[in-house]
Structure to design on (366 residues):
């Protein structure tokens, strides 16, 4: 399991430039006019994780297979999108299919690149997008509530539970607040809310697209976005889409030198991925052997059988136990044999909650 993240924002904020950099492709046309992206472009990227290289070196694995995540470049939204302005209805539907929203916010001045709403104002831009998502949600819920009320009165338990979620969401939306503020903290509650398909319930990662000189520390615009994110429990990351696009076309051997030259320790992609993982409560476990060292992504709180099911459904169905070594123990004791000798090799059952960095081998019955 990775995650599917929709890149959204107003026209000309750098969405397609960022997408091209993230996926290291030129699939999304970046042009200086609205609606240059008419169909969502989809790209998979490998999740960079230095732990994989260490595990590979210790185990002598022939291949490294990182986990992957999906980015969807969704065309620029404009005011009135919830009513079909621009290409609004189509794009709102594309957002609904994503697990999270990466909201690219323009945090740079450039007289050569027009802004659809005039002067640069990231908070206004955030409000424009948020309002359209909330209006679309209001319309969606208002169409459903009468039917749910009838079913709930008739004793339908599922309808009663759904009605509670709908009423919680409507109360927030009518106050001008996004539905994600009503989403609970448990995986069960998040799954229930996901069933509503609300656009404003999606977790949001604000990507502050800054000028090259501000790629490390950000600027006044990005500080305002970070403050906004903190207020609503969202996450904000500073990147320069221009720098990322230049890094993407360089050979791997030259990327480090380029990053040092512009004062960065790592590509912005790494920060976006880490923030996305935090946002979606994701962790990584590893399987290691002579053939490959491989990373797998699961939601925090996942038990061992379900983690095994990410590899193959038969692993979950026939789960017996997981042979478990924490990453730090695997490295400190130079692999499985050393970890066994040091008493760091554990047998875990069906109730074991997989931790980030666990090196696992699953035993299952055919």
């Amino acid at each position: 399991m990775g995650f599917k993240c929709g890149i959204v924002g107003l026209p000309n904020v750098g969405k397609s430039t960022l997408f091209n950099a993230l996926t290291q492709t030129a699939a999304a046309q970046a042009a200086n006019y609205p609606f240059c992206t008419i169909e969502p472009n989809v790209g998979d990227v490998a999740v960079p994780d230095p732990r994989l290289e260490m595990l590979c070196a210790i185990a002598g694995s022939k291949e490294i297979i990182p986990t992957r995540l999906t980015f969807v470049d969704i065309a620029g939204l404009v005011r009135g999108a919830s009513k079909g302005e621009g290409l609004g209805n189509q794009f709102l539907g594309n957002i609904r299919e994503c697990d999270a929203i990466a909201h690219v916010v323009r945090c740079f001045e450039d007289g050569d690149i027009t802004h659809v709403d005039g002067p640069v104002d990231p908070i206004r831009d955030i409000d424009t997008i948020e309002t359209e998502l909330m209006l679309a949600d209001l319309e969606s819920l208002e169409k459903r509530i009468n039917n749910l009320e009838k079913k709930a009165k008739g004793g339908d338990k599922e309808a009663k539970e759904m009605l509670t979620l709908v009423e919680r969401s409507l109360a927030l939306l009518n106050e001008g607040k996004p539905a994600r503020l009503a989403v609970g903290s448990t995986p069960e509650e998040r799954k229930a809310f996901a069933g509503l398909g609300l656009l404003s319930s999606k977790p949001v990662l604000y990507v502050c697209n800054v000028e090259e000189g501000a790629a490390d520390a950000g600027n006044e615009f990005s500080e305002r976005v970070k403050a906004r994110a903190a207020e609503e429990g969202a996450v904000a990351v500073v990147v320069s889409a221009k720098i990322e696009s230049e890094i993407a076309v360089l050979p791997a051997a030259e990327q480090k030198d380029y990053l040092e030259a512009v004062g960065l320790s790592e590509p912005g992609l790494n920060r976006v991925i880490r923030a996305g993982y935090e946002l979606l409560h994701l962790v990584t476990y590893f399987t290691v052997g002579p053939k490959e060292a491989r990373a797998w992504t699961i939601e925090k709180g996942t038990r061992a059988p379900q983690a095994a099911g990410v590899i193959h459904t038969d692993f979950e169905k026939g789960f017996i136990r997981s042979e478990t070594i924490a990453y730090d123990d695997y490295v400190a004791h130079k692999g499985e044999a050393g970890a066994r000798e040091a008493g760091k090799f554990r047998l875990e059952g069906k109730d074991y909650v997989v931790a980030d960095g666990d090196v696992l081998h699953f035993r299952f019955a055919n």
Observations:
- The chain is about 40% helix and 20% strand.
- The first helix runs from residue 15 to 23.
- The two ends are 23 Å apart (CA to CA).
